[in-house]
Prior knowledge:
Shape: globular
Number of domains: 1
Low-confidence stretches: 1-16
Largest sheet: none
Structural class: mainly alpha
Radius of gyration: 18 Å
Order of helices and strands: HHHHHHHHHH
Number of strands: 0
Distance between the termini: 45 Å
Helix content: 40-55%
Amino acid sequence: MDSLLKGGLRGDLTLWTTDPTQPGKALRVVRQRIPDRYSNLMSYLANGRWKEADQETNKQMLESVGEEAMKRRYLQLEEVQNFPCYDLKLIDQLWVKFSGGKFGFSVQKQIWVDVGGKLDFGEDYEALKRAYRKMCDRNGWRGVTTYSNFTFDTSAPNGHLPVECIRFLVGAVGFLFSRMADY
């Protein structure tokens, strides 16, 4: 057995990879109970089905805040300000894990902060718009006018996904990211 580990078997296995384009041959087991309602999201992400994962993320976020949001099909500022931290953290962790650190709210938050975005702009809407434009330049959202024109693969810039649940939250993006400070 020892010779197997020294030679053949060990040499054939690679460690878990953080590069989503180069899957490893070994699976790292993580003991974290993911609620059943996130099983579709986890499956889409694990299989690199980025568009379906983005749509499922939007669905899960709307469901997290209630029936009215689901009927409207978007989040309002107050819902963003009070979005459940547990859900936000879990969704973000799944995106970050399965994209190898390329996608997720925490990746977007880092871009937001890097371009001068604040978690609360107060009444300075012009500064908020400038920061949002800079973030859109960095993560590839600038100039994309329809959902189908977003890039749903790993060639997209860092922070490009998820997008459906956040792209119209210009005035609330900082508030969503501020919810991440709570976990």
